[in-house]
Structure formats: structure tokens, C-alpha cells
Amino acid sequence: MADAVREARLGVQFGATEHFMCRCGETHLFDGYVLAHWDIELSHTCSCGRGHTFKKGIVVALKPTPAKKKVSENA
User: Fold this and answer.
1) Residue 54 maps to a domain
2) Which of 2, 1, 8 is nearest to 55 (CA)?
3) DSSP state of 8
4) How far is residue 51's CA from residue 43's CA, in Å, rounded to a whole number?
5) Strands of 58-63's sheet, edge to edge?
6) Which residues on adjacent β-strands are paired with residue 44?
7) How do residues 26-71 score in pLDDT, each as one tens digit?
8) Could you tell me if residue 65 is inside a domain?
9) What pLDDT shows up at residue 72?
10) What is the DSSP track for 20-68?
11) What is the number of domains present in the chain?
């Protein structure tokens, strides 16, 4: 049975072959580029706009999902 995919939260560490999940529910896999650059800070932006920054598989920073703009009634 496969391990459950975990949400990327600040301070959580992921192994090089693990998937991580954004708060929106989309899952992502570390690819060859990430593995080749494991020792430097790398940022990933999910399709929802939320940003995740990793170093050696540890979540070191998160960028919130951008707020949706309200449509002005006077436009």
C-alpha cells in the first residue's frame, strides 16, 4: 500500500521520491531537476497560485494563494 500524500506545511520534510500536496488538493512530485539541485532553495508555484519553497526536501517558506479579486458593482 502506498504512503498517503502529505500536505506541504512549513517545517515538514519530504523524501526525494515523495509527492507533496498543496492546500488546494493538487499533488506534485519532485522531478529530476529538483533532485539535481537538492541542496539549494527551490520554489514551486501550484496552479492555484500558492507557492512552496523547499531546501533538501524541507518546506522553508510558503506563499499564500492569491485572493480572488472582487468584481466591482460600479464597473
Assistant:
1) yes
2) 8
3) -
4) 7
5) 42-45, 51-55, 58-63
6) 52
7) 999 988 888 899 999 999 999 999 999 999 999 999 999 888 776 6
8) no
9) 63
10) EE-TTS-EEE--HHHHHTTTS-EEEE-TTS-EEEEETTEEEEEEPPPPP
11) 1
Strand pairing category for 42-45 and 27-29: unpaired
| Residue count of the chain | 75
Inter-residue contact 26 to 47 (CB < 8 Å): yes
In a domain, residue 13? The reply is yes
Residue range(s) defining the domain that contains residue 52:
9-58
Question: Any idea what DSSP says for residue 9?
Answer: -
The verdict on residue 53 lying in a domain is yes
Question: How far is Cα 9 from Cα 75, in angstroms, rounded to an integer?
Answer: 38
Give the torsion sign (CA, 12, 38, 47, 52): positive
CA atoms lying within 13 Å on the CB side of residue 23: 13
Residue corresponding to grid cell 539541485: 37
